[in-house]
Amino acid sequence: MSDKMTDLFYALWLAQPVLQALIAILMFRRGQHRQFRFFFAYVVTQILAFALIFPIRHNYSVFFYLSWLSTAISVFLGFKVIHEAFLDVFRPFHTLRDLGTVLFRWAGLVMLLVAGVVSLSTNSAQTVPWVQAILTAQRCVRIMQVGMVLFLLFFAHYLGVTRRQQSFGIALGFGLFAVVELGVIASWVGQHLGTVSISLLGMAAYNCTLFIWLGYTLAKLATRHADTNLLRPQRWEQSLTDIQHPVPADSLIPMFEGMVDRALSRTQASPSIQPDAAAGAAPSPAATVAGLALHGFSARAGSKK
Questions:
Q1: Domain check: are 55 and 143 in the same one?
Q2: 241, 261, 289 — which closes off a domain?
Q3: Mind giving me the DSSP string for 206-225?
Q4: Dihedrals φ, ψ of 36, to 5°?
Q5: 212, 178 in Cβ contact below 8 A?
Q6: CA 100 – CA 121 distance, rounded (Å)
Q7: For 264, left (φ over 0), alpha (ψ -120 to 50), or beta?
Q8: What's the rounded Cα separation, in Å, for the pair 278 and 271?
Q9: Do 272 and 234 belong to one domain?
């Protein structure tokens, strides 16, 4: 690299821990680290990784192992951060949130299986298997991050999510960086970009991501749209709830309703009684049955509350 490229490279690299420290301090002061624990852990981990890696950057062997270890930790925390943003988006819908948690667990398992298979099936003298596994897992997480951003862009209106929420900003930052990184990897595989250009583009994209997170951290926390039509996710929530907790067929409420309906139909079918005679007459058996049924149904319904 030329001197200008080297200065630009170090300027972009040194700016990252400064921005990350600002994000961590602001999150801690505003109490946001409790709501987004994995995102806060991810930011702090990046700061610690820089503090360990930067001083030994000239020692290639130690630098190699520490950098890949920090990459593996970042991949894990990046996956957990996307799950955390997903849970925040579906916070009012408990059943959908539980379903999403199950899907994320299966996605994580499939990601590990794919990474293991790719690492074992790759016969490359330049890349060791465990490095190939980390790279494969990282690309899987990047694809999930892009998918999370697209999901929020298309379904934010149905879920009542505003684009000023911090969960949306976290996913947006990861998604934009993932798009750039995947594009850079494709360009590198196609030999359209060199190593220096790839490094500079990756660092510049990550710094833009840090600025996005810093802006969302500084901004006032936004709440969900209260006037948003949430009928569609409510129907999804109710459908999943009915599947998990079906109503038993032998419920007592339909039985009492049928008894009341039959008693009322018999009362309406009985011959009408003159008002003067009905004043001193005893109640009819059908009316007595209807009254007892209504009284029993009311008492049973009151006991159910």
A1: yes
A2: 241
A3: HHHHHHHHHHHHHSPPP---
A4: -120, 75
A5: no
A6: 31
A7: alpha
A8: 12
A9: no
Structural domain count, the chain: 2
Is 101 within 8 Å of 91 (Cβ atoms)? no
231 and 258 share one domain: no
The one-letter code for the residue type at 119 is: S
Helix (H, G, I), strand (E, B) or coil at 166: helix
Task: Locate all alpha helices (DSSP H) within the chain, ordered by sequence.
Answer: 3-30, 32-35, 37-53, 60-89, 94-121, 129-159, 166-189, 195-218, 231-244, 252-269, 275-280, 285-304
d(CA 77, CA 70): 10
Q: Give this prediction's pTM.
A: 0.70
The whole domain housing 43 covers 3-241
Question: Final residue of a domain: which of 219, 241, 263?
Answer: 241
Amino acid, res. 34: R
The per-residue pLDDT for range 129-157, each reduced to its tens digit, is 888 888 888 888 888 888 888 877 777 66
Same domain membership, residue 174 and residue 44: yes
pLDDT class of 52 with cuts at 50, 70, 90: very high
